[in-house]
Amino acid sequence: MERVTWFFLEYLICCTAAICLTMAAQTKLNITTDRSALLVLKARITSDPQNMIFINWSTTTPICNWVGVTCGARHHRVANLNLSYFGLTGTIPPELGNLSFLVNMDFSNNNFHGILPQKLARLRRLKFISLGNNKFMRVIPSWFGSLFKLQVFSLFGNQFSGSIPATIFNLSALQKIDLSDNQLSGRISREIGNLTMLKEIYLDSNNFKEIPNEIGTLNHLEKLYVQDNALKGPIPMTIFNISSLTIVTFYGNNLNGIIPDNICQNLSNIQGLNLGANQFNGPLPSIFGQCKQLLRLDLEDNSLTGKISREIGNLTMLKEIYLGGNNFEGPIPYEIGYLPNLEEVGLSENNLNGHIPSSIVNISTIKVLYLGQIEQLNSPIPYEIGYLPNLEILALHQNNLNGHIPSSIFNISTITGLGLSFSQLLGSLPADIGLALPKLEKFYAGANHLSGVIPKSISNASELRSLDLGGNSFSGYIPTTLCLLTNLERQKAVNSIDPVTSTCELA
Description:
CATH superfamily of the largest domain: Ribonuclease Inhibitor
Radius of gyration: 31 Å
Shape: globular
CATH class of the largest domain: Alpha Beta
Distance between the termini: 112 Å
Structural class: alpha/beta
């Protein structure tokens, strides 16, 4: 009996050893297949400025130690291939389709070009592919629709043309699609509604003409970027039913119609809403103040009318608001000063009237304030505006603001751009202007009623690139020290000063 038992044990040991040897041989064969595929890729690379591939991918080094290569712990096969930002130039060979255990493939931010070989359709384990910012052209290959496990599909920043292949809309596991910055055109297929797991859509900077209602069925969608296309007509109202949305941007299209009044009731999680540079009309929704999570609101360059609601003061999370280039009327709401996180305000080119609310001094975080080309703003500049410690750009040009320029403005050491031209401002410039505003890059105060001399200290603003003081009543000389400002690109003389007194070339 013992002899039988020992015989059986020896048999099991031999079988196990044989299986292990077979598996080892198979693994070695497979890893050799992977290595051969990558060596073909290496041979297709014509430029490797950082020597990431040419030096590191050596047959004397185990493939799993090659830069950009990660192998799986179980099968020791190539699972991740990340060559992003290597600066490589070359083409992709069909042999990469032999990397049968590949899960992630990132070739973004290189200079790959040529045809994407159909054999890549054999990468059935692939979940992530990014070929963004390369030089690929022609149509997007339909074989991408064979990669059924794909979760991230990114081809941004190439020169693909034509329409999105219908096969792409069969990728039911897809969570992110990024086809931005290409030359794609036509209609976005209604089949996009099949991609029910989608969380992020990036189709910006193409030539799409229509977006379907079915996009409103994507209940997991969080980010929708479709700016800078050729979309026309109204936005599908179904989009405003996707409660998971956090960012929506349709900037720079030809969309029209009204902004729905219940937008904030359904988009309770919205953080960024960008509908600027379209043809929307009608009033601002009266309940915009219910968008409590809103961080950025951009509705500039449309045909919106009515008043800016006082409800805006409820958007306490807001950091950026751009409503310029519309037909808003009435006063600037005092409640704008209730927004403690506001950093950028753009209300230029409207029919607003009255004065700049003093409550704006409460917004210590503000960096950019655009209030130019509002001709019915006809009060003095509030002295309190100089109490904004982080202000970088102040644009008050082409208004009817009057009185003296508050001296407090020249105490904001963070200012880089100051626009005061084409108003009714009086007085003189402070003698120490160039010392007080050391970061000043652009200063426009032309076409006012300023007088006195142009301070010599202005030449201490070493970052100054553009200067316009024309159309005032300055006297004396143009400081020759302006010639020392090497960054100065544009300066405009004043009519009351003889330009011969300056050796600088004046426009």
